[in-house]
Amino acid sequence: HVQLVESGGGSVQAGGSLRLSCAASGFTSNRYRMGWFRQAPGKEREGVAGIDSNGRTRYADSVKGRFTISQDNAKSTLYLQMNNLKTEDTARYYCVAALQIWGQGTQVTV
Are 10 and 108 in contact (CB under 8 A)? Predict the structure, then answer.
C-alpha cells in the first residue's frame, strides 16, 4: 500500500522551530522528487521545498534560509526543519511524492 504519513506539526511561538517528518511506505521514495506543500485557510496550496533523486533542493523564496528539506533514505523518511517560524507560516503542511502521492497533512500553527 503506497502512502505518506506526516507528523511533527504543532503550535509554536514566532521565532521557534519545528521539524516535520514524512514516512513513506509501499515505494522507494528516494527514486522520486519529494516535496512539501502547505495550504493556509482561504489560500491556494503552495510549494514550500523540494528534493530530487540526486539530492538537489529547491525552496520557496518565503522560506529560504529558514527551512531545510532533507531525506533519510534508509528510513524512507522526508524531513522539513523549520526555524525562525513566522505567523505567516501557519498552514497545513503536506508531503508529496512525484506530485502524485499526497499525505494527509499536519497542522503548523505559529
Answer: yes
Relative to beta strand 57-59, strand 77-82 is: unpaired
Q: Could you give the 3-state DSSP secondary structure of residue 61?
A: coil
pLDDT digits (tens), the chain, 110 positions: 889 999 999 999 999 999 999 999 888 777 889 999 999 999 999 999 999 999 999 999 999 999 999 999 888 999 999 999 999 999 999 999 998 999 999 999 99
Query: Where are the strands (E) in 1-110, listed by range?
Result: 3-7, 10-11, 18-25, 34-39, 46-51, 57-59, 67-72, 77-82, 91-97, 101-102, 106-109
